[in-house]
Amino acid sequence: MPPLCFRYVCVFLCSMQRAISVMLVLTGLTNLFRCCIIQMNIGHFLKVVSLSLVYDIMILALLFSAGSMIGWVLEVFYRRFKPSNKERVWINPGFLNGPCLPLYGFGLTALYLLAMLERFINIDNEALRKGVLFAVMAAAMTVIELIAGEVFIVKRHLKLWDYSELRFNYKGVICPRFSFYWALLGAAYYFFIHPRILSGLVWFSHNLLFSFVIGFFYGILTIDLVHSFSLTAKIKAFAEENQMVIRYDELKKHIREEAERRREKYRFLNAFKTEHDLLDDLKAYLEKQLERAKRGDMSDLITLRKK
Fold first, then answer.
1. Closest CA to 279 of 255, 257, 247, 244
2. CB distance 239 to 158 below 8 Å
3. Where are the domains of the chain?
4. How far apart are CA 214 and CA 54, in angstroms?
5. CA dist., res. 160 & res. 149, Å (int)
6. Residue 290 CB neighbour total at 10 angstroms
């Protein structure tokens, strides 16, 4: 058997090879598409698709990637210092392994599009018009949050975040407090970010470097999605068998505690990669949830409604 470190290096190199391959394919397709635009009869091509629309799509792709990574950073620090994390441990947020939260990617894209639509709000009072805009932004973010939360609860038996301890929450997925936070975030984006990024976004969408950056990001994202869905398929099967909706952060926290107790290495970006089988960690987590249920504490052991 080769040394353990050698096997890890081989796995890492294989993963990077796949990521670079996907990145090169996406970059090549983007450059080929641009060449076709230049060499084709522009007048004929514009009848099929507007060139400006192509650049708009590239801008949205950049916004999604930037929002996903910035949101990941915000969530890492929020979960580190939130009151329920009494141990103050670092937790990798979200469904993916890498530094990416697609929820925030969709959110930033939505904020950008809504800010562009302000001129269609037919209200003369500027303050009132902006207040309506921020309310619409908060509603849009809340809807995105609701859809993502419901999909993961129903389809994957996972709860990626939990507002159950906050007042007036719905299934622990949305609540008025965070809708208010989304409104504040929308206002901060509108006043401090949106006016300063428009020229930069146009430059990126017309620059060759943009193709490489976007190709690299979406190549890594594709591999991460495939790996994460494969991993959570095992967790889903266990959750269905035991009538649970597993709180993802709690499971990661449990695995970290077990690794520290056994004096094993804990991987922040790959929390489920341990020296023990994942099923053993899930069984230990189930026992912990049974103990919490007996004490009357909030646990993951809830009966699922039939859909």
1. 255
2. yes
3. 18-228
4. 14
5. 7
6. 13
Q: How many residues are recorded in the chain?
A: 307
Query: Helices 51-81 and 102-116: crossing angle, nearest 10°?
Result: 130
Whole-model pTM? 0.80
Q: Are 231 and 282 in contact (CB under 8 A)?
A: no
Q: What is the 3-state secondary structure (H, E, C) of 149-164?
A: HHHHHHHHCEECCCCC
Question: What would the pLDDT profile of 51-108 be if each residue is shown by its tens digit?
Answer: 677 778 888 999 999 999 999 999 999 999 988 888 888 899 999 999 999 999 999 9
CA angle 240, 148, 248 (to 5 degrees): 50
Q: Render pLDDT for 12-26 as a digit per residue (tens, 0 to 9).
A: 444 444 444 444 444
Tokens of 242: 């035991």
User: What is the phi/psi pair of residue 58, to 5°?
Assistant: -65, -40
Q: Cα separation of 213 and 26, whole Å?
A: 10
